[in-house]
Amino acid sequence: MRILLLSLIATIAFFGSPVSAGVKLKDIVEVEGVRGNDLVGYGLVVGLDGTGDGLRNIPYTEEALSSLLERLGINVQGEDFRPQNIAAVLVTATLPPFARAGTQIDVTVSAIGDAKNLNGGMLVMTPLNAADGNIYAVAQGPVLISGFAAEGDAASVTEGVPTSGTIPNGARVERELGFDFASLTSLTLTLRAPDFTTASRIENVINQKAGRTIATMQDSAAVKLAIDDRYSSPAHMLSEIENYEVTPAQKARVVVDQRSGTIVLGSQVRISSVAVAQGNLSIRIRELPGVVQPNPFSRNGETVVVPRTDIAIDQNEEGNVAVLDENITLADLVDGLNALGVSPREMIDILKSIKSAGALHAELVVQ
Asked: What pLDDT was estimated at residue 278?
């Protein structure tokens, strides 16, 4: 039986021992109401080199093109109009908070038909709508893609995704959101990783800096702030508070990525007393067929192939079972497995088994 001393293999990311380090509030919280808004629109990309939609298969592309040309004063109804340099696309973008009219934002363009490549295409003016149905931006410009596609008569090659691209600063904001931040009478800080200890520390730091109670923890994800009279506006107050430093509480967590064999253990992981051993059973099966010849001068004899199977079972029983003492730290865990070349798959199985035994005091996240 092969012995597994608990340590970490090279594929395990190790962050070191716990260190008390302050983190700025702006890095761990969001301000309720201050967020981006998703935009989406349907448009056409023109100027493609014969890699656009097949209009016989994608009728909505032809309808959109006819509608566009009619708005420009060109009637193509009833005409045999089937170009190959046009593609129907969905255009998506995010309207950032406090975006003003005239601000330019990036957009993403993705083909929704059977277009093969958007390289060299130009997005025609496309209105972008929010969830309320209103138009907040208009996109237009050349599409930049990171992939390419090439093909011949007998082979083809594709690198990346040539049917999706971006337009940097490709949309201009035409309408602002009706959010009056200066009129707020209170602010709510929402934690990106909800935790009661972290929320309590944020409340204490803000109240200590202010010299009075202006912050109240509502739950593990929210801390409510009353607007301090010392500041001329909520924006000035927030500009100071977001730079306060807080030490966030960390949960003991082990993250396992089974596809890549990567294991990440937080510094708070603890392991109780447990014994670990893994068997090393090897089974070899070989087919060694034999040939049987008839006796000399035999009239009715014939050559026969006789099957012969060789099975060997090896089991290494050397070594001792690894016994871990109470409250083993991550550093102790590293010192053990590094000495043994444990494979990622074996390490994942070990962690699962220790968790099932109740000896791993951490959240096990398997991806």
From this structure: 58
Tokens 């994942």, located at residue: 348
Q: Closest Cα to residue 205, out of 234, 246, 243? A: 246
Our count of domains for the chain comes to 3
Which residues on adjacent β-strands are paired with residue 253? 363
**Helices assigned H by DSSP within the chain:** 59-71, 196-210, 234-241, 330-337, 344-356
Domain identity same for 158 and 70 = yes
Rounded Cα distance, 230 and 237, in Å:
8
Is residue 217 situated within a structural domain? Answer: yes
What residues make up the domain containing 133? Answer: 37-173
How many CA atoms within 13 Å lie on the side-chain side of 120? 13
pLDDT in tens, 70-111: 777 777 665 666 677 888 899 999 999 888 999 999 999 998
Q: How many CA atoms lie within 13 A of 76 on its CB side?
A: 16
What is the pTM (predicted TM-score) of this model? 0.65
Q: Are both 11 and 58 inside the same structural domain?
A: no
Is residue 191 located within the same domain as residue 210? Answer: yes
| 57 and 122 share one domain | yes
